[in-house]
Design brief:
Elements: E1 3-4, E2 10-12, H1 19-24, H2 27-41, H3 55-66, H4 80-93, H5 101-111, H6 116-122, E3 140-144, E4 158-163, E5 166-171, E6 173-179, E7 183-184, H7 185-192, E8 201-208, E9 214-217, H8 220-229, E10 231-234, E11 246-249, H9 251-254, E12 260-263, H10 265-271, E13 282-283, E14 292-295, E15 300-309
Parallel strand pairs: 9-12, 11-13
Antiparallel strand pairs: 1-2, 3-6, 3-8, 4-5, 6-7, 6-14, 8-15, 10-11, 12-14
Helix pairs in contact: 2-4, 2-5, 3-5, 4-7
């Protein structure tokens, strides 16, 4: 897959990014790495998760974690579902709307290199095997807070920019990939995330047609390539001074070539809140929340009702 810009400039080729490097260049990526280390080997002595909200406590925690030994298989106990839960909790705890976020982000990026051995092992673990995988067309899950099943007649997208720096269209159809029969990233998000729903959560599985054109976002490079190919002016979603122009996709333009945009788990962890590119053509992805696909057209075959998602054990929380 290729996207080309002005003067036939090559913007993206598969395999261009290095997943470990991208993870360590992302505040969210470093934070979830730290959370995974603590999940398998415990909090540093005398510390609590609440202390990570302050940059000083976060710095002490990361320094302590960097002294631990990374070993092959150290993350094997982390199942995909638990990793998905940790990602949702990490996004809540590392919110850019908090005044101290910038200092938190600086601390995380400064500590990334010291945690590199853990990043290598995390991305080799069985639970992360699909983090950078392309869309699974057989396992796309749609959720609703109402009782209406998804169908083509009720699909009316609004492809105007969402606004406020949130880089998605105002209204579209969103799916997330099922993990087993009982969970998905969206299910964890609506239970614990910023936009929580009341249970039960109504779920359907949508089969994506083989002819559907899906663009894959696995990192900041591929997100910027999409923005460069279909540019629209944007602005940061949180108060950071910037002299550089920031761009986001013109969603109406995107529909000329693509039916859906898939953000993988790896893409979320390496591109969310990361500004990428040269001044005047920088892109940042913000507001997607979980591994997901935004659908700009109805490109589905079979629609299957799934069991409702209900309340989860709060002891698994952050």
């Amino acid at each position: 897959m290729y996207l080309r810009g002005t003067e036939d400039e090559l913007l993206y080729t598969p395999g261009e990014h290095n997943a470990v490097n991208d993870l360590l260049r992302s505040p969210l990526g470093v934070f979830i790495l730290a959370r995974c280390i603590m999940e398998v080997s415990g909090m540093p002595p005398g510390m609590t998760l609440a202390e990570l909200n302050a940059a000083e406590g976060l710095a002490r925690c990361l320094q302590a974690l960097s002294t631990r030994k990374a070993s092959s298989g150290c993350f094997d106990q982390l199942a995909p579902e638990r990793l998905s839960e940790l990602i949702v909790h990490s996004e809540i705890d590392l919110t850019p709307y908090w005044d101290g976020y910038q200092r938190q982000a600086e601390v995380l990026l400064a500590s990334g290199a010291a945690l590199r051995p853990f990043a290598d092992h995390l991305l080799q673990a069985a639970g992360t095997a699909t983090w950078f995988a392309e869309l699974d067309r057989k396992r796309q899950e749609w959720m609703s807070s109402a009782g209406l099943a998804p169908d083509a007649s009720s699909f009316h997208p609004d492809l105007r920019s969402y606004g406020a720096g949130i880089t998605k269209p105002r209204r579209a159809l969103w799916t997330s990939t099922s993990m087993g029969e009982g969970s998905s990233g969206w299910l964890h998000y609506v239970h614990w995330g910023e936009d929580r729903w009341e249970s039960p959560y109504l779920r359907w599985r949508l089969e994506v047609l083989a002819t559907a054109r899906v663009y894959e976002v696995h990192g900041p490079q591929t997100w910027q390539a999409l923005c460069l190919a279909y540019p629209a002016p944007s602005r940061l979603a949180y108060p950071v001074e910037t002299p550089a122009a920031v761009i986001e996709p013109d969603w109406q333009g995107v529909t000329q070539d693509w039916d859906g945009i898939h953000l993988s788990v790896g893409g979320l962890l390496t591109a969310e809140r990361v500004r990428w590119g040269r001044p005047g053509a920088q892109a940042h992805l913000y507001g997607w929340g979980v591994e997901s696909t935004v659908w700009l057209r109805w490109v589905f075959g079979a629609v299957q009702r799934l069991p409702d998602g209900g309340e989860r054990d709060e002891s698994q929380g952050s």
